[in-house]
C-alpha cells in the first residue's frame, strides 16, 4: 500500500460518498483536503462528514483546530504526509479527498513551500487597507507583483492574498516562483468527479437548502456566542459570513441564501482552475456514468499494477 489515491473535484460533486465507498472496498482511510473542514465547531456550513461517517471510516485532518487558531499550507502538507505515512505503515490505502486545490497539489506534487514567518505588523497594514478600500484593492496589488499567483487565488480570499503579498514583501520575489516541486516517490492515482455546470449548480443549491434545514443558523449563532470574531478567516468563509449578516439584521434570510449559492457557484468555477479538465493526470468521471463502478475498476487496476 505504498501509494496514494486522491478523489478531487468541485464542491458538491459527491467526493465524500465515493471516498467512503472506496475506503470500505479497499481497506482505506481518508485524509481531508478541504481547507474549511480542519476547523472544529464548523460542521454544517463546511459539509463535513457526519458523525456516523467519521466513525465508519477513520478520517484524518478533520477537526484539527479552533476557528481562531492559525493554520498554514506548510503545516497542512506536513500533517498530510505524516498521515499518509502512518496509513501506509499499517498496510492500508490512503485516500486524499477534497476540493482545495492548494492542499491537494501541495501533497501530490510535493511543493517546497516558502518558509516565511508571519509579519504581524505588515498583515495588519494590509487588513486595514482591505477594510478601507476593499479586498479587491489587495488583489490588484497581487496581480501586479505576481500575476501567476493571482490566477490561482480568488479575489475574495483575503487571507491567501495577504500571505502572497507578505512573501513578496519579505523575499522580493513572487511566491509563484517559489512553488518548486519534489513529488513523492510512491505512485498515485487521481480520480476527478465532474458534471455539467447546470447539474452542479443544482446540487449546490440543494445542499445549501439542506444546510439551512439542518441548523446552519444555530451553528453560526453558537460560534458567535463562543466569541469567534467575524473578521477571522474561518468566519468570513462562504455561508458563515452571509448567515452572520442575517443574524445581525443586515440582510434577510432569502438574500443570505441567494448570496451563499452565488458565491458557492463561483467557488466551483474557481476549483476547475485548479483541477483542469485537460489534466492528463486526472481520471475524470462524469455523473452521467456509473461513477462508483468506474472508480472501483480504476483503483483495482491501479493497485494491481503496483503489486
Chain-wise SSE layout:
Blueprint lengths: L3 E5 L6 H11 L2 E5 L18 H6 L2 E2 L12 H17 L3 E5 L3 H8 L2 E2 L7 H14 L1 H11 L1 H4 L7 H14 L8 E2 L6 E7 L2 H18 L1 H10 L14 H8 L5 H22 L7 E5 L4 H16 L1
Helix pairs in contact: 1-13, 3-4, 5-6, 5-8, 6-8, 9-12, 10-11, 11-12
How would you portray this structure in words?
By secondary structure, this protein is an alpha/beta fold. It folds into two domains: 4-113 and 181-306, Rossmann fold (3-Layer(aba) Sandwich); 120-178, Histone, subunit A. Helices cover 52% and strands 11% of the residues. It is built from 13 helices and eight strands. It has helices spanning 15-25, 51-56, 73-89, 101-108, 120-133, 135-145, 147-150, 158-171, 197-214, 216-225, 240-247, 253-274, 291-306; strands spanning 4-8, 28-32, 59-60, 93-97, 111-112, 180-181, 188-194, 282-286. The strands form two sheets. A six-stranded parallel β-sheet has the order 3-2-4-1-7-8, with helices on both faces. Strands 5-6 form a two-stranded antiparallel ribbon.
Annotation keywords:
13 helices; 8 strands; six-stranded parallel sheet; two-stranded antiparallel ribbon; Histone, subunit A; 52% helix; Rossmann fold; alpha/beta; 2 domains
Outline:
This protein has 307 residues and is α/β, with parallel strands linked by helices. The chain has 13 helices and 8 strands.
